[in-house]
Amino acid sequence: MNVKFKLLAYEKFKKDGFEALIHDLKESKIVLIDAKLSSEQEAYVIEETMKQIGDKFSGIELASLSLLNEEALGGFEKFKNAILETIIGKKRGFTIIGPAKIVHKIKKNPEELTLLM
Q1: Are 60 and 99 in contact (CB under 8 A)?
Q2: End-to-end CA distance of the chain
Q3: Nearest-angstrom CA–CA distance, 43 and 49
Q4: Which residues of 25-60 are buried (b: 16+ CB within 10 A; e: fewer)?
Q5: Which pairing describes strands 60-66 and 105-109: parallel, antiparallel, or unpaired?
Q6: What's residue 84's pLDDT?
Q7: Where are the domains of the chain?
Q8: What is the model's pLDDT at position 85?
Q9: For residue 4, how far is the Cα from the chain centroid?
């Protein structure tokens, strides 16, 4: 089985919106976004995807991973990171979204994601 991955810049994800993302997922591509989506963005993607489920599309698996250990950061480091995220407009990390017919489950721990296909 061939698996296609698409690397998607967060800025392009924000610009092109959900329709471009769902198009790639329906073409059986696993999408990697170069930022950690907020919980609100994840909820929106899941909610909109649920509306698309049918005979040819069975949904998605989604997980985000932060590149920062927030608990290990001191007060000033957290403040500095918050300013940096505000300036660049994205959270440091990445998000992986795959069609459920290919990605059956994503196991997540603080330092890695494991795709079960």
Answers
A1: yes
A2: 10
A3: 10
A4: beeebbbebbbbbeeebbeebeeebeeeeeeebeeb
A5: unpaired
A6: 62
A7: 4-116
A8: 65
A9: 16
Mean pLDDT, range 42-62, rounded to an integer: 93
Residue 50 corresponds to which tokens in the numbers above? 């649920």
| Residue closest to 69 by CA, chosen among 49, 93, 45, 46 | 93
- Residue with structure tokens 């329906």? 26
Instruction: Of 27, 38, 23, 56, give the one whose Cα is nearest residue 92.
Output: 38
Q: Which amino acid is at 66?
A: S
Q: Which residues pair with 114 in a beta bridge?
A: 107
C-alpha 27/C-alpha 24 separation (Å) is: 5
- CA–CA gap between residue 40 and residue 66 (Å, rounded): 15
pLDDT value at residue 74: 65
| CA-CA-CA-CA dihedral for 27, 4, 10, 38, to nearest 10 | 80
Beta bridge partners of 95: 33, 64
User: Do strands 105-109 and 29-33 pair parallel, antiparallel, or not at all (unpaired)?
Assistant: unpaired
CB-based contacts of 59: which residues, under 8 Å, 6+ apart?
A: 49, 50, 53, 99, 100
Q: Which two tokens stand for residue 88?
A: 């660049």
